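I'd like us to work through together how a protein chain folds, taking it slowly. To get us started, please write out a protein record for me. Go ahead whenever you are ready, and we will take it from there:
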Amino acid sequence: MTTSPDLLYSETEEELRSAVRALLADRCVPAALLGRLESGTPYDPALWDTLATGIGAAGLLVPEKLGGQGASHREAAVVLEELGRAVAPVPYLTSSVLATAILLECDTQQAEVVSLLAELASGERICVPALPLTLAPGAPLTAAVRDAGDGVLGGAVTAVADAAAAEVLLVLADTGLYAVPAADADIAPQVPLDLTRPLAAVTLDAVRGTRLADPTTARAAIAGALLAGAGLLASEQLGLAQWCLTETVAHVRARHQFNRPIGSFQALKHRLAQLWLDVASARAAARAAADALATSAPDAPLAVAVAQAYCSGVAVRAAEECVQMHGGIGMTWEHPAHLYLKRAKADSLALGTAGHHRSLVAEFAELPAP
């Protein structure tokens, strides 16, 4: 018997939201963020330290016996929702979700795995998977790195998100999963669309890694992590869309033309009403995915595919409407609207496109392709 997903936020989740939102309102204001991007240093170590260690968000998915908070994907989704609202340049999705999920599917009796999980949960270290950000759940996993013997690795992976902030890389090689010190790899920055989530090409040239899992376990762990990451990315997209809607409504109420607020014009009213409906539907889809992941529901892959297929487009539409309805100021660097549009566009490719997830929905529902 299947149960209906719980789409409501619990009191604990609302308290967590308040803490994260207050932190971001103080440490990640648009002017400061734009300044960091102009200087070429998007990451804010102090912000990450407070989020990961002070609030304890880094260890939400890690069980208490392994040094974490013992929470679930629902709480992690709330954090990502707030990070999306602020387009915060922190490696939460890559380190606290993807890397953590991979490690939890490895042998948690292995000393290296236990130690790394404890360090991630405490916020002491940042670990990211050396995988393309565009790699989607259900897509074939190809090891681009080869083991020359005794864990000496060679190969290259492109479009690795947050590699510049990482201290440890999780590398999929032909002989299994390895932990590699980021300092031993050649990390070359690539030009990203979204400056708040930098990409890099990671090259390993006779670099020794610590083996964490065999090939079969490694591939299963990565597949599960991609599913969790895609499901929680929908919450980031939801937060992004919510900010765009809120800011746009505030602008059209304050901006006057012909001695009236432009928000009183019927054409804009209709567009904003439709956007509100889209965001409300995106919230339901994102919450359903987070709840399905938290409860290990049998239909979690379907819930994640539905959430990504829908939330991806809503985030892009909300950001586009935000830029357009702000008029000339929305096109400037000084206004943060472009950051949300770039993050929305980048997220629409991350962990699978909407088209890929629609194909998965059709496959799960056994609908034949046209």
